[in-house]
Amino acid sequence: MFSEEVPSKMNQQCKVCGEPAAGFHFGAFTCEGCKGCITVVIELVSQTTQAH
């Protein structure tokens, strides 16, 4: 989605909830659960903006 440099350290915590991170998503290390929530929010905002 975004082109960004991914930090090389993978033993990171999720920046949202503090759980072990699964990867670098949306500009931060996040776990799979938070990645899913962020994805849903982005989709809802996108749909709302397109409807207006």
Automatic annotation (TrEMBL):
It is found in: Nucleus. Residues 12-38 form the Nuclear receptor domain. It comes from the Eukaryota. Keywords: DNA-binding, Metal-binding, Nucleus, Receptor, Transcription, Transcription regulation, Zinc, Zinc-finger. The keyword NAD does not apply. GO terms for cellular component: nucleus. GO terms for molecular function: DNA-binding transcription factor activity; sequence-specific DNA binding; zinc ion binding. InterPro entries: Nuclear_hormone_rcpt_NR3, Znf_hrmn_rcpt, Znf_NHR/GATA. Transmembrane segments: none annotated. The keyword Transcription regulation applies. This is (diamondback moth) hypothetical protein. It comes from Plutella xylostella.
